[in-house]
Design goal:
With 412 residues, the protein is an alpha+beta fold. Among the domains are: 110 residues, no CATH class; 46 residues, no CATH class; 43 residues, Laminin (Ribbon), CATH 2.10.25; 58 residues. Helix content is 31%, strand content 20%. It contains eight helices and 22 strands. It has a two-stranded antiparallel ribbon with strand order 1-2. Helix 2 crosses helix 5. It is flat and about 140 Å long.
Length: 412
């Protein structure tokens, strides 16, 4: 339902009406501006309340940039007829008549209230002055203003307090002006004050000392040990910060290699800056062992190994022997080069194809005999049946024999 989509607030309806107002402004002089003022006024009057203009506005409602676009689109479909009623029955008759917001969101949907009203029955906010038009003395807002929720009491802006937001919060002071009064926050050195300056404090805040009725910042950095070793101190109003020194500094007064009091090992002072020492310079005696090379690092150096050398546990470099590959020409052979036959040489195995030919020939002969016996089956039936069984068994035996020959032939 519409109520479940809108919920307890009128935000969706407000968004819809706001987009409609934007459409009105953009189409206010659509397709006009040619210079003929009298003609434009006549034509513009017809277009201003036309159905064409309404359709153009409705088509562009709920753009992708709007919040809760899906809910806005749903609401637009549900109330499109009511918008058309307002357009033709109210807006077309009087451009300054009842607003779409009041007609749709307040009267029809009952999701919103008029400004300065709140609650289910749209009651007047408790501390709204209709004479001055101010709510909560102008320093706060009505709880639930313009909606069907809230309790109508004042929600004060920062620095203001009281039932009607007509008092200053603690640590704020009051000043008067033509529009009444304002509450301004005290100086950050104060805990309570009667003016904007550091000499108008009721009490000094932490990190400040009172000197001659003034609150003066304490310089915590005057304590040389307030920060850790290899850190510097930065004084701030009422406090301080500790920062880390540059890597080149042993100690420092600020950040950067130009703020070093003294340099770390591996660095040296050059023009008041701590610069890295190049331990790997050409005249260096470091990393001179076989296979070593020197690599300069910030504040240090490293002895690494050149190509073909491997670093050992003691830091030295050892030459890595290339792996040897035995070629086919280097393989040892057991062949004898002397003349005559080798008596120990094994005789070659019988070639399996010859075995196959012999066994296959036997099988063909057996099948041929089986065919002959089948021919005489009608004359000597008993003898032929026995002979057929014998031949059948022999064929089966030969097939097994052939299988064995084939299986042995493919064994490596």
């Amino acid at each position: 339902t519409i109520k479940s989509i809108i919920g307890q607030t009128c935000e969706i309806c407000e968004n819809l009406v706001q987009e409609f107002q934007i459409g009105l402004q953009k189409s206010e002089k659509s397709n006009f501006g040619g210079g003929n003022t009298a003609w434009e006024e006549k034509r513009l009057g017809n277009y201003a309340t036309s159905e064409t203009r309404l359709v153009h506005i409705l088509e562009k409602l709920c753009p992708s940039s709007i919040n809760n676009r899906e809910k806005c689109q749903y609401l637009r479909k549900e109330v499109e007829e009511k918008i058309e009623e307002w357009w033709f029955n109210i807006f077309k008759k009087d451009l300054n008549g009842l607003s779409l917001y009041h007609y749709l969101c307040v009267d029809y949907l009952k999701a919103c209230c008029p400004p300065n009203y709140f609650g289910k029955s749209c009651e007047l906010c408790h501390f709204h002055n209709e004479t001055t038009g101010l709510t909560c003395s102008g320093h706060g807002k009505c709880d639930g203003n313009g909606t069907r929720i809230g309790n109508g009491t004042c929600v004060c802006y920062s620095g203001y307090t009281g039932t009607m937001c007509n008092e200053c919060e603690f640590n704020y002071f009051q000043t008067t002006n033509d529009n009444g009064y304002t509450c301004t926050i005290c100086h950050n050195s104060c805990v309570g004050c009667h003016g904007p300056s550091y000499d108008e404090c009721e009490k000094c805040a932490e990190g400040w000392n009172q000197e001659d009725s003034k609150c003066v910042d304490i310089d915590e950095c005057s304590n040389a040990t307030i920060c850790d070793v290899n850190q510097y101190c930065l004084n701030t109003e009422g406090s301080f910060k500790c920062g880390s020194c540059d890597l080149s500094c042993a100690n420092c007064t600020g950040f950067g290699n130009d703020k070093c009091v003294s340099c770390n090992n591996g660095y040296q002072k050059i023009n008041n800056n701590c610069e890295d020492i190049n331990e790997c310079s050409a005249d260096s005696e470091l990393c001179r062992e076989p296979g070593q090379k020197c690599t300069n690092l910030p504040g240090s150096f490293s002895c690494d190994c050149i190509d073909s050398y491997v670093k050992q546990s003691d830091g030295s470099c050892k030459f890595k022997e290339p792996s040897k590959k035995i070629s086919s020409t280097d393989k040892p052979t057991n062949r004898k080069t002397t003349g005559g036959k080798n008596k120990n040489r094994k005789q070659p195995k019988k070639i399996w194809t010859k075995k196959f030919e012999r066994e296959f020939f036997k099988l063909i002969c057996c099948i041929f005999l089986l065919g002959i016996t089948s021919y005489f089956l009608g004359y000597y039936s008993l003898i032929v049946i026995v002979a057929a069984l014998i031949c059948g068994y022999y064929i089966y035996f030969k097939s097994i024999k052939l299988d064995q020959i084939f299986s042995k032939s493919f064994v490596v």
